[in-house]
Each structure stands twice: as C-alpha cells, then as structure tokens.
Amino acid sequence: MQRDSSITWRRIEKNSLNLAGLNVAVIGGTGGIGRSLAHDLAKQGADVLVVGQTFRDAETKNISFLKADLNLVIDAKRVADEMPAETLDLVLMTAGIMAGPKREVTAEGIERDLALSYSAATSSSTRSLHVLARVARNRT
C-alpha cells in the first residue's frame, strides 16, 4: 500500500480545540474510553449526550444522559428513535464489554458480546442513518 502524498498530517493538541456548539452523542459513554471521551469533549465546549446504563456525571457541565441497556437490541432501537439525530454533528460508538470465560446470553437470546458489540450498534445506527444522511445533505 502506498501513502497518499496529497494527505498531510499535523498533530493538534486536544486542549487547543474549540468544540463550542458541536453536538455529540457517545453511545456507551458511561465508562471507560467512552466516558473519558465524553468528558474531554464537554471540557472543550461540545454538548454531549451520553447513552448507557449508569450515569455518574450529572454534575458535569455540557453532558446529558439517555438511559439504555445496549445489551438489548430493543433498547438500541429505542435509542435511535429518541436520539436527536437532526442536531447531531458526531456519533461515537464506544460501547463494549470484556468477554468473560463463560458464554452469556441476553434476555433476547443473543450472545451478550455479539448483542452489545454488533447488534446494538447496527440497530441504533441503521435506524437513525436516514436522518443523519438527510442532515448531512442539507449542511452542504
């Protein structure tokens, strides 16, 4: 694979970014990398919607919450319907789990890691994709 010489890269320090007015949804933003990203984005001025099970950042400026069990496809579909896709500039999918040594199945009968890592992400993104695409077309 050859490097595309028309693309140039430059390092940007995250603290130099002004994200004021940017609307971001972090799917799986209640822990780990997602929570850290949500905090960083909010500190830089973005309005962040965190989607997950347990919200610990109610006092954090610029962060709001949508409760959902992303292990369940039905909840992922609900999130897609309730997410304000028309106003979002960015959606980050960070939901994930550490797979355990024993197979676990959700209440819907789907293997838990598959439900969270693939089914929920696919369900939530494809349901809102048409809205996001329309918004993108209107912005150009």
UniProtKB/TrEMBL annotation:
Question: Which UniProt key words apply to this protein?
Answer: Oxidoreductase, Plasmid
Q: What is its EC number?
A: 1.-.-.-
Protein's name in the database: Oxidoreductase YKL107W
Keyword DNA repair in the entry? The reply is: no
What's one Pfam family the UniProt record gives for this protein?
A: adh_short
Database matches in InterPro entries = NAD(P)-bd_dom_sf, SDR_fam
The record's top EC class is oxidoreductase
Q: Identify a single GO molecular function assigned to this protein.
A: oxidoreductase activity
Top-level lineage group: Bacteria
